[in-house]
Amino acid sequence: MTPRAAGAEWSRFYCAGDSGPADVLHARFVTHRYARHAHDHFVIALVECGAQSYSYRGARHITPAGKVFLVNPGEPHTGESATPAGYVYRAFYPRPEFLASVAGDVGGRAGVPFFREAVLDDPPLVDLLSQFHRSVAARASRGEREARLLEALARLITRHADAATSLMPVGRERAAVRRAREYLESRFADDPSLSELAALARLSPYHFARAFAREVGLPPHAYLEGVRIQRAVERLRRGESIAATALSVGYADQSHFTRRFKRFVGVTPGQYVREAGLRARSKIDQDKSTPECERDRHTQGGDRARRGAQAVRTA
Question: What's the CA gap between 247 and 261, in Å, rounded?
Answer without folding.
Answer: 13
